[in-house]
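I hope you will forgive my troubling you with a question about protein structure. The record follows directly beneath this note:
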Amino acid sequence: MKTKPNARPGPTRDERRQSLLDAARLLFAEKGYHDTTVDDVTRTANVAKGTFYLYFSEKREIYYEVIRVFLEWVKEAGVIFDSPTASPAAFVEQTRTNARNLIRVLTENRQLTRMAYGEAAGLDARLTELWRQFYREIAEVQAGNLTLAMKLGVIRRCHPLLQAYVHIGMVERVMLELLEHPQDFPPIDQLVDEMLRIGYEGIRGPNGPMWAVMFPGQPGD
């Protein structure tokens, strides 16, 4: 007698929720919040409409989650961890790597970035608060990075939170323009190094080597 093959297990609860989020992220980025419907999301995710309401009470709730996850990606791209082997050179190299990772996150999600920084930023009070918390959290991450840099002597003593907000403003404005007009900017590695140089030379500390010593032969040396 032939044995019945094992049935392929269906998607788990987490997988179904993730498929809805992936579909919503794609649609919100392409069409915007107002022109995307729950039917669009469930159709793209290939699930029944009723399944949507097992995970989200309404369209706005899944929109909040899409934006929250995107902001977490951005925040995670900036963390530098202290370690017993930390050195000025290692710190600077990690900073360069993080900057490239941030650009990769934003450019690989170009439409989502535009939506998050445009439509989503002022949609309602809950999203406004989400953005306020996001800026505070990434400022605290950057302040932690600058505190480590001061400990290593890479930069001079400064107010880390103040400098963090200065850097965030510079980086954010450049990134948003880069997404809209990439032809106006140099290649990514050069762009990263020029922005780092602007920030670094202004607050370089006694143990921080001159930029030209660390990266000889770059424009402006």
